TrEMBL record:
GO CC, one annotated term: cytosol
Keyword match Oxidoreductase: yes
CDD domains, sorted: BDH
Swiss-Prot/TrEMBL keywords: Oxidoreductase
Gene Ontology molecular function: alcohol dehydrogenase (NADP+) activity; butanol dehydrogenase (NAD+) activity; metal ion binding; methylglyoxal reductase (NADPH) (acetol producing) activity
Designated name of the protein: Alcohol dehydrogenase YqhD
Oxidoreductase found in the keyword field: yes
Superkingdom of this protein's organism: Bacteria
InterPro entries (alphabetical): ADH_Fe/GldA, ADH_Fe_C, ADH_Fe_CS, BDH-like
Residue ranges constituting the Alcohol dehydrogenase iron-type/glycerol dehydrogenase GldA domain according to the UniProt record: 9-176
Length: 385
């Protein structure tokens, strides 16, 4: 197990009626920018609860953050925040809104003479960011309690991430009741997203991080158990609560401690989203199975462990590893997330060429836990999707 340091400063308020805790978290008199997406928080009741909890604050609203938050949109929020001299950000919605909130919190505090796009890709050192709170209504990314954000720039078809401890949310409210009205597509996407966040930190090679292995396996088994129930019976409170907590814990920071990590599936997936507008989870679902097959020699020991512990498969390592890939792909399909590019109207050959070009342009030429997946290797993975 590799050396590690762990620090997660986000306070989590989990359960029903926890939005009221905003009154304790945000100082009275604060100038708050409330950011959200398409308006689902008004339909599910979260908006009214947020406004009530922030009644002692001055609240300015910014709506319309996209499912893959766009730089162009976020900069409008930054301009508004600067004009209103905002001193707190509250992001209410799913991971994309919270990712957008992180960028807004950093960009408002940035020297106006600097290009905010430099934040993305960690091309500039952040000195400060506005305090940020998150109200989660769509479980998937774990963005509500981590330091990562992904932003898309529509004009250049770039989808890139940045990480900085200054954008950890100060607090996060996780109320599973708000996920009861989610459409099936978002439930399936959320489960698949959380599942692959976990495998990116787990399906590499055995590193002696035994506790982290069991944490990963527990999250995966939980998603396999409750994901189909949440999809078929959205009124099932236990299933919804466990999906929300599993998605949070997948990227809370504990699973990957001391572990080699992969993230090539995400690197490829980000390019597919930028190129074709596919949902984030859809790109992961089409990429992971062929990636696992392409890297089977390196991942066989961990895939066999995964197959035995998570899927209860039997046989020698080679057989169990291959069966585990099939079981994983079947699970994504059961969650309603197709695992072939042609199901999304995308030609695999065209995608393979374009993804390789984008990865090369972004300098992503040494992907995977061993740093040996080239853009050409990734093109072959996409072509097999």
């Amino acid at each position: 197990m590799k050396p590690f340091t762990f620090h997660n400063p986000t306070r989590i308020h989990f359960g029903a009626d926890q939005i009221a805790r905003l009154r304790d978290e945000v100082p009275a008199g604060s100038k708050v920018l409330l950011v959200y997406g398409g308006g689902s928080i008004k339909r599910n009741g979260a908006y009214d609860q947020i406004c009530a909890a922030l009644s002692d604050c001055s609240v300015t609203e910014f709506a319309g953050i996209e499912p893959n938050p766009e730089f162009e949109t976020l900069m409008k929020a930054v301009t508004l925040g600067r004009e209103q001299q905002i001193d707190w950000i509250i992001a209410a919605g799913g991971g994309s809104v919270i990712d957008g909130g992180k960028f807004i919190a950093a960009a408002i505090a940035l020297d106006p003479a600097l290009d905010p796009w430099l934040i993305v890709g960690n091309k500039i050192k952040l000195e400060r960011a506005l305090p940020l709170g998150a109200v989660l209504t769509l479980p998937a990314t774990g963005s509500e309690s981590n330091q990562a954000s992904v932003v898309t720039r529509r004009a250049t078809q770039d989808k890139m991430s940045f990480k900085n401890p200054l954008v950890f949310p100060r607090f996060a409210v996780l109320d599973p009741s708000f996920s009861a009205t989610l459409p099936a597509r978002q439930i399936g996407n959320g489960v698949v997203d959380a599942f692959i966040h976990t495998t990116e930190q787990y399906l590499t090679w055995p590193a002696g991080a035994l506790i982290q292995d069991r944490l990963a396996e527990g999250i995966l088994q939980t998603l396999i158990e409750v994901g189909p129930t949440a999809l078929a019976k959205p009124e099932d409170e236990t299933a919804r609560a466990n999906v929300m907590w599993a998605a949070n814990q997948a990227l809370f920071g504990l699973v990957g401690l001391g572990q080699p990590q992969d993230w090539a599936t995400h690197a490829i997936g980000h390019e597919l989203t930028a190129l074709y507008g596919m949902d984030h989870a859809q790109t992961l679902a089409v990429t992971l199975p062929p990636l696992l097959r392409a890297t089977l020699a390196d991942k066989q020991a961990k895939l066999a462990q995964y197959g035995r512990r998570v899927w209860n498969l039997q046989g020698d390592d080679a057989s169990v590893a291959e069966q585990a890939i099939v079981a994983t792909q079947d699970f994504f399909e059961r969650m309603g997330v197709a695992t072939r590019l042609d199901a999304y109207g995308v030609d695999p050959a065209d995608a393979a060429q374009k993804v390789a070009e984008q990865l090369t342009r972004h300098g992503r030429d040494k992907l995977g836990e061993h740093g040996k997946l080239s853009p050409a290797d990734c093109a072959r993975i996409v072509a097999a999707a």
